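Hey L., structure's done. Input below.
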Amino acid sequence: MKYKYLLENYDRIINQIKNPPIIFSNDLVPYLKKKSSESYLIYPVDFKTINKEVKYSVKNPIHNLHPDFGKIKFKPSGNTSTFDIHIPIILQKLNISNNNVKCNWCAKKKSRLYIVKNCEIEDLTHENRFFLYCYQTLKKENERIKKANKERIYNLKSKNKIEQRIHQKQQSLENLAHSLIKEINPENYKYLRHFSDNYNKTDCLKITYIYLEKLHRFIEKEYKNYINVQSNIPYRSLFIKEKEITNKLKNVKSALLNSEINIQLLNIVYEPILKISTINIKEKLTYYDFNYCSEFILEIHKIIENEKITEDALIDCLFYLNFNSLQFFKFLTDTILKNLENSDNNIQKIDCLYLSLKCYNQKQRINTVKYRINLPSVQNQIIHWIEEEIAYLNRSFNLETKHFKLPPENELSTKFISGLSVAQLSCFFGLLLETEIIKHKNQTDIFKFIAQNFKTKNTDNISIDSLKVKYYNVEIGTKKAIREKIMELLALTKH
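Output:
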């Protein structure tokens, strides 16, 4: 089924904002009158008492079709205030007749008065009418899109098709939101949600962005099990989610900065914390990154609550969270190398390395997520490095002890010719490891086995380093080729 573009009417409105038709003004009045049987302006008046003297400020009015109108809550009629005596003076200064207004006090703020004055749509400026038109049109458009989207998704019975459709919608919303941010160029998120009194082009683009973001959040909430976690999270969602962990985030930052842990480790731990605490409207953060960083902060907070802010506790926590940054990997390897300096000879070094290998093999970690999605897990990184160090020491000093000596390479052994390329062999054996068809934790042994026993049409001697590189960086074409071979194998099982 061909994907229908979601945001055609958004594009049309944005084009009108940037290039408003000259005759368009005449069509706005009847359109807006259909949206409400009433038309009135609301003047917010704020009172304050300074040195027993009452002062007030009158803000510019907004129309009842304005997006901020929904935030206004009146007290029930009949409520009075000590500031009531100032109302006639304010009306006189505003040149408003008593017969043409209603005065209501704010339900939330006792010192705020709302002066409600009837008006005609025609009396509003063209800019104001056009802004109200944009808001009301986008509001209706979102309702239409939500309804149509639910119907179309409901008719898709396949999970893969639903996921594909949701990912396409996310991409469309993300692209348009990004172009609007570039056009508006806001200093911060608060600026995006504040409208000027001139109702200019920027205000119209702001309301367009706000409703685009509402649509993005609808997709996020309604189809949370299908969204692309590598897609950028809407800033509004980020802002709301961040507030949920604000207190824990403050406690974590304060406790870490007041601790006496190694500065290198502190910088490593602080990296995901800064990702959340310093994010701004122009930067991008994916759902995956935000969820990982949030979980990271919660886990560090548990350590703080238990009063265990030690280097060992933080390292264990980073390992458990699969914090596979290259900086953390370097920190771990530097620590091991520093410990090796206390060894008198290479046999002791290898003993020390095997002990480290045992410890890291037995450490618990989360298998479903990792900090850097394109890098191997922290466990694989460090185990691989230790194995390489052990192999290097064995080769360099030709240790004869059977416990440490590597099995000799038999270069004269017969090699099988594979119909797969080197990259495809690496990918295929990787799948055998992941599905536990091959149960062997030492990946170096696997790479050596392939190199010693296989050759391809183009390569007689397969490089172990080449296998490693291709194992951790599988290309799309390689995955597709292996998938086709697996399909052939499945077909053979039917006979």
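The first helix runs from residue 8 to 18. The longest strand covers residues 40-50.

-- N.
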